[in-house]
Amino acid sequence: LLQIPEDQRTETNTAVEEEEFINDPDRAFQYYLQYMRAEQAVRQRRQRDNADEFFGGGREGRSNRSNGPQRSTSIRRERLNSTGEVDQQRRRRGRRGGRTKLERQNTLVREKLQSLPTFWPIFIVGVTFLQVVAVVVLIVLQGLAPIHYEPLTHTDSYPSLRTEFGNVSVTYYTFTNLWIGIGLLDLIHSGIKFTPCMRRDAAIINRNIQQRNREEDNGGLGCCQNTIWVGTTIHDDCVVSEFPDLNNTAYLDQIPCEDTNALLANFHPCCISITGQCEVMHIRQCTDRGGIFHVNRDSCNDTNCMDGVCGFNGVDEDNGDPLRPVGNQIWRLLLSLFIHLGIIHVVIIGAVQLYLGFKIERTAGFLRVALIYIIAGVGGNLMSAIFIPYQINGGASPSVFGLLSVLFVELFQSWQIVDRAWLEVLKLTGILVFLLAVGTLPFIDNLANIGGVLF
């Protein structure tokens, strides 16, 4: 049993030594009951402090109260009205140990919490540090994308094979990054979750096959030449001169420009979207639109755009056909947990991650927190990849939701022994609502967050 404070123990010994209760058994019994109550109060206070340390509440308040005026710790020697009142209290509490079933259960939980070891939050601190370093390094290497909520619209004049004198006005969009980070294509190159890079995408393959069929229905590819530019395209996309006698346009039917020695093509395939859409255009237009220019390719039929979009070692090709890409980068489900969208994103997620992770890892330890973090993160990204395949997603939001769900479970299990439990519920609920609101912003997927809770 725990011992009562020194001043109480001293007073007890003094009273016994002075033979104050030797000739009064009734008073001695009452004094014994008060002594046991004081000892039980000390035990409960220590166990409650241990529970408060786990949930982060109540400790500072008690330390402040302990610095104030000390109450007298002497046991008040009050005489009960009658022995019948003692019996009534015993019946009310029950015969097993003088405590109700709920009190006994709470005491067992407190004792279990008190016996738990305390760990340093090495995993959470280490992971957060790596995530911050990754964002900084990517910004230094790739540069910042335009900071805006929506894509920006641009209109400019570019070289074209569709006009006789070689220029056309084009309106296009460029992606932005609200989170103060790198561009969208650079994020995919860095390893965030993007389903077409992870598996075979039937929609992308069907679009590429339809484009090939359209070219074959128009007689195949040929070399188109206008007054200024040369490039491989179909006949319908090549300019028809309004002045044939000037002989300033030409179309070599079914002869790609790469098969001619007389003409040097300056139009090549350009992959201009994250889903691998290919168009033959001039390098200046391709660069302004944020595309990938394939100077060594002559037509889109021999260009695997998803290979350039996904980066790293590229993607596989079904039967060697560049128009049938097969994603193989399944490791993005894990790597994307460490690649955040920008500075604002990593600050928000990192702060919440440290707050929640400290609470769990101090009692659960490195290995348990690592398993919770990785399983929730990978599971959330997997759910998003299945149901929203073209939504990119980066950062540790699914893992943070997994940590949050663990704290909710721990709180409800220890409800009876946590001081101000409703305040803890309000704190965790506020964090949950805040993160769900952040999940409505660009490049963040709330479905992945929900998956983190479920897993």
Write the layout of secondary structure elements.
Blueprint: H1 6-17, H2 25-55, H3 59-67, H4 83-93, H5 101-115, H6 122-142, E1 152-159, E2 167-174, H7 184-190, H8 202-217, E3 222-225, E4 230-233, E5 250-252, E6 267-271, E7 278-282, H9 283-288, E8 292-293, H10 305-310, E9 316-317, E10 325-326, H11 332-335, H12 343-364, H13 366-387, H14 397-413, H15 421-438, H16 446-454
Antiparallel strand pairs: 1-2, 3-4, 3-5, 6-7, 6-8, 9-10
Helix pairs in contact: 2-5, 6-12, 12-13, 12-14, 13-14, 13-16, 14-15, 14-16
**Terminal Cα span:** 42 Å
The percent range for helix content is 40-55%
The value of Rg in angstroms is 36 Å
Estimated structural class:
mainly alpha
Low-pLDDT regions: 1-5, 8-19, 57-88, 93-98
Strand/helix succession: HHHHHHEEHHEEEEEHEHEEHHHHHH
Largest sheet at a glance? 3 strands, antiparallel
Number of helices: 16
How much of the sequence is in beta strands? Answer: 5-15%
Mean pLDDT reading: 77
Backbone shape: elongated
Characterise the protein shown here.
By secondary structure, the chain is mainly alpha-helical. The protein is built from 16 helices and ten strands. It has a three-stranded antiparallel beta sheet, with no helix packed on it. Strands 7-6-8 form a three-stranded antiparallel beta sheet. Strands 1-2 form a two-stranded antiparallel sheet. It starts with 5 loop residues before the first helix and ends with a helix. Residues 1-5, 8-19, 57-88 and 93-98 have low confidence and may be disordered.
